Amino acid sequence: MSDFEQHIKRYLDSQKNCLITDAMAYALDGGKRFRPRVIFSILKGFRIEEEKGYDSALALEMIQTYSLIHDDLPAMDNDDMRRGKPSLHKAFREDIAILAGDQLLTDSFRVVADSKSYHPETKISIISALSSYAGMAGMIYGQLLDVTTDSSSIDKEKLFEIQDNKTGGLFKIACLIPMYIAGIDRKDYFTRLGSMIGEIFQNQDDLFDLIKTEEEMGKNLSDAKNDKGTALSVYSLEELRKLIDDEFEELNEYLKDAVFDTRYLMELLNILKER
Amino acid sequence: MSDFEQHIKRYLDSQKNCLITDAMAYALDGGKRFRPRVIFSILKGFRIEEEKGYDSALALEMIQTYSLIHDDLPAMDNDDMRRGKPSLHKAFREDIAILAGDQLLTDSFRVVADSKSYHPETKISIISALSSYAGMAGMIYGQLLDVTTDSSSIDKEKLFEIQDNKTGGLFKIACLIPMYIAGIDRKDYFTRLGSMIGEIFQNQDDLFDLIKTEEEMGKNLSDAKNDKGTALSVYSLEELRKLIDDEFEELNEYLKDAVFDTRYLMELLNILKER
Questions:
Q1: Does the global pTM surpass 0.90?
Q2: Does domain A2-274 correspond to CATH entry 1.10.600.10?
Q3: Which of B15, B18, B76 sits opposite A95 (nearest CB)?
Q4: N or C, where is chain A less crowded by C-beta within 10 Å?
């Protein structure tokens, strides 16, 4: 188990022994921790040990996890499976899933507020970023666009707006957190960096989903995917591959202006290509 | 419109013009603002103007409102009405209600983090109190107890544990916020004060509900109330009246040790009797 996984385990062990903690543990299990790894790789580029990012990375992972729980609910996407196992409201109950999501969100702010790793001003900056970009300046607004956009009317601009809020929101936070910890003031640069990483992440995710599904099902599922509002509803497979290549190139250019050693972040992003 | 109501309106006006903001406005409308008034009356007892409490009172009211929205959902209490109008998931949609609740909770922390009224250390203390007592040290834990407790097995101790977490949690916050703003360090005293006020508030609420229902329906509904886990499931009407009188007396004693002028809080609590 990695050190960060042990950090998550210590957090869960410190919580009340009750059904909500069991549900939180179930939902937190099995994540790829990609957003935390963005935090750690930028921190390393600042020559700051990654342990310094554990509490805020945990908070971000808790917010990511709560959003999956609530997105899976019957009234939202109504997904019975998540990460190859029953989604939380199936494994537990729907009321417990709502409460466990609420608790993950609520407690993510306590984790940062009570952290021993940051100065009060840094905590406030991190909490402000979390609550803005996980909310109306990001994830929740993106989710609203997603549930209210008619999939037949979606175009490239609308798709980008949804992705840049829904997925990009938390990646913006993942880039801002190490900036705040390093005590650097380049908010525009790191917000844009998060936006670019989020865009590549989401497009790659849609691409791999499609390739995997096609391989498993032995047929082209792009039509079936159309109504899910993914990149494949507005791009052909080849256009999407080209888009991702262009986005990687643009990101490489952008990173030349970085104020941190970018090699760790580059290594992490290269993993994305090979998933 | 009171100054605090105008503060809530200014907050809503500053938000994105979208369905979630409409839903938040709908849900925030019509509250009695009792928890904010606890904050203001203690602040006045510290000779601090109540405006100083507006941002944290707004945050607390947002958390109270989100909890009502999620509690009313079909998977939870399945209540179609709230404050004499359709509950949020009936007036809007269930997915919008879940998202609006999530956004109220998320943004409550941003309201405190971005406030111009508090020092960073004070913000951290307030955020820590909000996330603890609205979470596993209070409201959410109380809600878990509520949805998992078999009403036939409920006794006075269990009922108190549910109330002291579910209702008491936010009242503890309402008492801690002015303490932090005043820069006083008597956490045990103010937490206990919140617990006592929450207990009286909840018992009075149950009592008035019953009296009102009996008057309207012209019959004794205490049996029907039994399965709702209110005070009337373990106390007779007369026992409950006596309990509340005793609790008021105990509170008056307790307030003799207060480090603030208690007359404003007393005035507010007396309103409770006459509701």
A1: yes
A2: yes
A3: B76
A4: N
